Amino acid sequence: MNLTAQQKIRLGACAWSFEEWRGSFYPAELPPARWLEFYSHYFPAVEIDSTFYSAPAEGTVQRWVEHTPAAFRFACKLPREITHRCRLRDCRAELAAFLRTMELLAPKLQVILIQLPSSFSPKDGRPVLRGFLEQLPRDFRFAIEFRHPGWHRPQIIRLLEKHRICWVWADTSPLNERNLAPFEFLPRTTDFLYLRLLGDYTTKYDRDGGHVHRYGKLLWKREAALESWALKIERQLADTRNVWTFVNNHFEGFAPETCQRLANRLGFELPLPSPAEIASADPGQLDFFRSAP
Fold it and tell me: Widest CA span of the chain, in angstroms?
């Protein structure tokens, strides 16, 4: 892969605050307040998961800016208050307040993810969605993830094209013998792609809600799926401005290594921390930005 094509691809994890990564990605003694700083030395982007649960304080956003290199980029989730509680209805004030806070992250904030619940169907939600998209400001870029198959319609594609909203490609396929990437409805609706390798959520919780696994190492390898997604990405590069790809721990058990494995299939290297860095007894001496992306 040539350098121009590689620069279009932004690989990262769905969040960075995982205790399970301590000792396998983060140095054991590194305080959580420095995890983002450390993470941003190895990855060019991250999807902020915490904004889904509540809007961040201005001081938190400012620290995100200050603790990452100039070339580092963020995507973030729209708060669930807007997507799940209000279900995109009567939320103009909440949306304005959230966007006002996130303006502090510019120009590092590239995409805002609108993650809709699986119960949000077009039966009652189509006019609501149309009205919501019409009020979105043009100075932010948005991507939308539909979790109800009823949205898979040509008229919805045209609606997103009209408003320059990206249709999210999400892989939530279950683990099986072949582990192929899903052959699903994968339209392109704007000049960038937004891919989420989320994995099989049945691998996360048992029937009682307890955690089944710890996500500090690869637990299963989805070789065919990664190969398939690499091919899909490569086919789109010539006609897209950027490809944003974010990986969840549940996809293979350990998002950093999945990112590295996907990068290798795309023809470039994505180095992870060396054993010496992970074992560092004095994380205060780590030179995070000596080769920051």
Answer: 57
